[in-house]
Design brief:
Blueprint lengths: L12 E4 L2 H4 L10 E4 L17 H15 L3 E6 L5 H7 L3 E10 L4 E3 L2 E3 L1 E8 L11 E4 L16 H10 L6 E4 L6 H8 L3 E6 L2 H12 L11
Parallel strand pairs: 1-10, 2-3, 2-9, 4-8, 9-10
Antiparallel strand pairs: 3-7, 4-7, 5-6
Helix pairs in contact: 2-3, 4-5
C-alpha cells in the first residue's frame, strides 16, 4: 500500500542495527502494521534484554511507534509484563489480546505449566482486516535442523496474525526480527516487509530463511 514511500534499500530486507535508530529513517506513515516479538526483559542474554534497562527500551519503542504511526501494532509480551503495556498505553489504544497456543507444549510457568504466548493488539485507526479467532493454535516445531535461535516463533502463529491485520501488498515492520519469522510469513502471504535485528548472526539467519522462502504459507485458508 505504501511501499513507494519506503527507501528502496530498506524494503523487503533485513537491516542489521538498533531498531530505535533505524525506525527514525523510515518516513512517517509508511508502515501498515508493526508485528513483533521484542525481548521480555527477562535477562536471557538477548541484546536490549537487561532487566533494569527493559522499561526504558519499552518507552523508547513506544515513542518510535508514535512517530511512525502504523495503524496497527501487534506485540508479543511476557504474561507478567507491565513495562511494554504501560509504554504502549501512553501512545496507542489497546484493542484486544490474542493467545498464541502451542498444542504440544508443557513448559513450566508461574502457576504450574503453560503452553501459550500472549500478543497485544494496539491500534490508531487500524482494524482487523481478516477476522479470525483470538486463540491461534500451532504445534511447537524443532528448528535446530533448519536454523538456530534460542526463542524461535511459530510461522503458523505469526502468519495468521499477518493475515489478520494486513492486506496483500501492505508493509509489515518487525523491529525485533530475530530469526525472521514475521518477515518470512509476510513474504509468503504477499506482503512487503522490513526486518530490523541488532544481532548480526540472527540477522543473517533471517536473510537465509527469506532466501529459501517461496511457497505460500497457507495452502488453504485455516
Amino acid at each position: 500500500m505504501k511501499d513507494d514511500q519506503v527507501p528502496p534499500d530498506m524494503l523487503d530486507t533485513i537491516i542489521t542495527g538498533d531498531c530505535l535508530e533505524v525506525m527514525k529513517r523510515l518516513p512517517d506513515g509508511c508502515v501498515d502494521a508493526v508485528i513483533t516479538d521484542p525481548p521480555f526483559g527477562a535477562g536471557r542474554g538477548f541484546a536490549n534484554d537487561s532487566i533494569d534497562a527493559f522499561p526504558g527500551l519499552c518507552l523508547r519503542f513506544a515513542e518510535a511507534c508514535d512517530i511512525l504511526g502504523p495503524p496497527n501494532i501487534l506485540v508479543e509480551v511476557g504474561k507478567g509484563d507491565s513495562s511494554m503495556r504501560s509504554a504502549l498505553d501512553l501512545v496507542y489504544d489497546f484493542r484486544w489480546s490474542i493467545v498464541l497456543n502451542y498444542t504440544n507444549s508443557m513448559r513450566q510457568g508461574a502457576v504450574g505449566y503453560h503452553n501459550c504466548g500472549l500478543m497485544l493488539w494496539y491500534a490508531r485507526g487500524g482494524k482487523c482486516c481478516n477476522r479470525y479467532m483470538d486463540r491461534i493454535d500451532s504445534p511447537m516445531e524443532n528448528t535446530l535442523g533448519k536454523f538456530r535461535h534460542p526463542s524461535p516463533k511459530s510461522l503458523r502463529h505469526y502468519g495468521q496474525v499477518v493475515e489478520m491485520f494486513s492486506h496483500t501488498g501492505d508493509v509489515i515492520l518487525d523491529p525485533f526480527a530475530g530469526s525472521g519469522t514475521t518477515c518470512v510469513a509476510a513474504k509468503r502471504l504477499g506482503r512487503h516487509y522490513i526486518g530490523i535485528e541488532i544481532d548480526p548472526g540472527y540477522a543473517q539467519t533471517a536473510r537465509n530463511r527469506l532466501r529459501d522462502t517461496e511457497k505460500p504459507l497457507f495452502q488453504e485458508k485455516p
